[in-house]
Structure to design on (435 residues):
């Protein structure tokens, strides 16, 4: 019994550590996906997916093509290295400013200003790199880590006037704070992973294998830190978390594999990665099985209510079509004047609903809760089997069943996006940076 207890605790801890299991697509996100699925062909989606990484790859290759001379020749002979540093920080600053504009739409950051301020920050940062290289030595040890604080400060200089005004705006200032927290997390990645790799390269061969197995633990920890930092982004959490943490992890995992003489280390890292993927696929399968069960219960209850023995049309409907039908029906239920308020605002945020009495309309409010709110709430509070299938033998509540189905669909889509992005990053990054 003690072993079973500890296994259950381990399983609970594992599930709690998996970021993808604690989120949901918003209703608006589901609607956008359904519309995209109906409007765009599979061929076009595949072409877009294939072409998206190439601008970044081309820019990286162009910067990397600038020739370098031997470090032993000194800083003066490596003036092209300074040019590469400038271009790298210029591109990085542009990307960060675009991210800031996306997170804080009211920020005065037109494209021309982003380009100019990016060049300004890159020049100042490159000057710091040059000065430190002259004072300490060339190449500068831990160069990116050393100059990162100065780089962040230089990026904030063009935004000082806006930040001063935003401080007095209670709606804009939280967005600024959240964006700065994301910057801190991104900077922590720049510190943690290079430091980890440096220690890895200094260890003897017999210790590298065990040290390499810290990499998956670091990844899980940083995923959780990042996801809790960007909880305000809701539907964008998978992209932000994976395009930061997973990119760094895949990059440095490939570095570790290239710099280890042990095939055991490589196989171990691959095995751990595969085990995590299989666990995520198992989680998706469990949710899908629950969805199928709930849908069958809905069909059976509707057939009973209509005194029909043959299947209803929903049985032949696809997952997204059936989900859209549920969302449309409960949206129309709350746009009724008797409901007291509209079901959803134009931007997808939920509004206060004041029904006259508790009815099946009340539960439709659960559809528009944010993913973060759903993640913090106890699942049994709204969708427990005790409420749906009552112990006293009463009929199952079709409304609750359909709402549970819609919630499960939102969860499956959220997990699936995580898995697709993980596979995408873990394939693309090693290919780009392989020797």
């Amino acid at each position: 019994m003690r072993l079973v207890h500890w296994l259950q605790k381990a399983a609970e801890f594992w599930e709690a550590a998996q970021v993808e299991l604690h989120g949901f697509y918003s209703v608006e996100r589901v609607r956008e996906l359904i519309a995209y699925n109906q409007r765009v062909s599979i061929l076009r989606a595949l072409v877009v997916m294939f072409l998206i990484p190439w601008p970044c790859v081309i820019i990286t290759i162009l910067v990397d093509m600038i020739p370098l001379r031997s470090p032993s020749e000194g800083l003066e002979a490596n003036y092209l290295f300074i040019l590469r540093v400038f271009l790298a920080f210029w591109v990085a600053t542009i990307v960060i400013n675009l991210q800031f504009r996306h997170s804080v739409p009211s920020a005065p950051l037109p494209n021309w200003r982003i380009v100019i301020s990016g060049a300004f920050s890159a020049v100042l940062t490159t000057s710091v790199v040059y000065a430190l290289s002259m004072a300490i030595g060339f190449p500068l040890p831990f160069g990116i880590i050393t100059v990162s604080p100065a780089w962040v400060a230089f990026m904030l200089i063009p935004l000082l006037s806006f930040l001063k005004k935003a401080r007095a705006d209670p709606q804009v200032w939280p967005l600024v704070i959240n964006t700065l927290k994301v910057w801190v997390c991104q900077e922590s990645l720049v510190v943690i992973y290079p430091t980890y790799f440096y220690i890895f390269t200094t260890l003897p061969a017999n210790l590298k294998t065990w040290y390499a197995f810290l990499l998956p633990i670091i990844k899980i920890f940083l995923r959780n830190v990042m996801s809790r930092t960007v909880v305000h982004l809701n539907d964008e959490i998978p992209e932000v978390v994976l395009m930061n943490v997973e990119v760094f992890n895949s990059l440095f995992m490939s570095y570790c594999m290239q710099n280890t003489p042990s095939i055991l280390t490589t196989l171990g890292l691959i095995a751990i990665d595969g085990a995590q993927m299989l666990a995520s696929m198992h989680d998706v399968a469990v949710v899908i099985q629950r969805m199928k069960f709930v849908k069958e219960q809905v069909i059976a209850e509707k057939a009973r209510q209509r005194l029909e023995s043959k299947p209803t049309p929903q049985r032949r409907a696809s997952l997204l079509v059936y989900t859209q039908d549920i969302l449309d029906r409960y949206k129309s239920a709350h746009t009724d004047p008797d409901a007291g308020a509209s079901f959803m605002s134009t931007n997808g945020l939920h509004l206060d609903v004041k029904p006259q009495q508790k009815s099946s309309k009340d539960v439709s409010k659960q559809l528009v809760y944010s993913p973060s709110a759903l993640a913090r709430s106890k699942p049994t509070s709204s969708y427990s089997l005790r409420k749906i299938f009552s112990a006293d033998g009463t009929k199952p509540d079709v409304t609750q069943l359909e709402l549970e189905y819609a919630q499960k669909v939102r969860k499956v889509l959220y997990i699936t996006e995580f898995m697709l992005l993980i596979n995408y990053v873990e394939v693309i990054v090693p290919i780009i940076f392989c020797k």
Observations:
- Residues 263-305 form the longest helix (43 residues).
- The mean pLDDT is 76.
